[in-house]
């Protein structure tokens, strides 16, 4: 015996399924695409601008890194230059351009000469060696550092060369004194040593703390003789 209601029920089910399918949302519908566009606009930063910002940040980081490498390279070249070839008219400093101190706390026989005429680090070391038979000063204790700071406090310049420098590449860089003595004392200023600033060590005439500077920067300097 056939059921007379079976066929109408099947037809109703098919129609209902068809209506549900037509009203179901699709990701490729125009309404949905409009909603997605509004979400991107609501973020406040267009997608293209985000990509440009990322490229700009990466470019700036690469420039900073490249600048640091260039400073290291320039300073290494400066330290290796023959200073006598930098100035064929080289002359030792005049007496009026120097200040001499004999003896200091803890070192009665020490003798220091402050040269007030600015020179780059290599020429300063050359002058100390060839004019005074010494070297740029090395500092091994607080008393000496304080004495040198007092010696330079009347200068108009904010920094003077002492004999410290950093040499080597990447993770194999170490500090040295130009006279070859042991690196056993430091008096760094806040944020120092900063090798991005240079590879040679200066003493601040106000406070006596140390900072890194480019070896090609002309500064007054202190010889230990």
From TrEMBL:
Signal peptide: 1-17
SMART domains given in the database record: CLECT
Pfam family, one: Lectin_C
C-type lectin domain ranges (all copies): 110-224
Residues passing through the membrane, by range: none
A GO MF label: carbohydrate binding
Gene Ontology biological-process annotations: immune response
Keywords (A to Z) from UniProt: Lectin, Signal
Name the record gives this protein: Proteoglycan 3-like
Organism: Phyllostomus discolor (pale spear-nosed bat)
Taxonomy of the source species: Eukaryota, Metazoa, Chordata, Craniata, Vertebrata
Name of encoding gene: LOC114499089
């Amino acid at each position: 015996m056939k059921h007379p209601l079976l066929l109408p029920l099947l037809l109703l089910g098919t129609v209902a399924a068809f209506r549900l399918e037509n009203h179901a949302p699709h990701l490729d519908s125009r309404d949905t695409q409009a909603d997605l566009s509004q979400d991107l606009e609501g973020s406040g930063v267009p997608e293209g601008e985000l990509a440009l910002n990322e490229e700009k940040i990466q470019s700036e980081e690469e420039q900073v890194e490249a600048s640091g490498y260039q400073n290291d390279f320039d300073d290494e070249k400066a330290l290796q230059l023959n200073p006598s070839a930098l100035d064929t008219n080289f002359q030792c400093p005049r007496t009026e351009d120097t200040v001499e101190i004999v003896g200091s706390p803890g070192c009665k026989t020490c003798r220091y000469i402050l040269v007030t005429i600015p020179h780059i680090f290599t020429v300063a070391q050359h002058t100390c060696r060839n004019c005074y038979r010494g070297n740029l000063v090395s500092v091994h204790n607080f008393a000496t550092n304080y004495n040198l700071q007092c010696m330079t406090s009347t200068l108009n310049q904010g920094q003077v060369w002492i004999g410290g420098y950093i040499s080597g590449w990447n993770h194999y860089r170490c500090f040295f004194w130009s006279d070859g003595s042991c690196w056993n004392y430091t008096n760094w200023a806040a944020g120092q040593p900063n090798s991005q600033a240079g590879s040679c060590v200066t003493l601040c005439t106000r406070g006596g703390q140390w900072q890194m500077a480019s070896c090609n920067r002309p500064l007054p300097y202190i010889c230990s003789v």
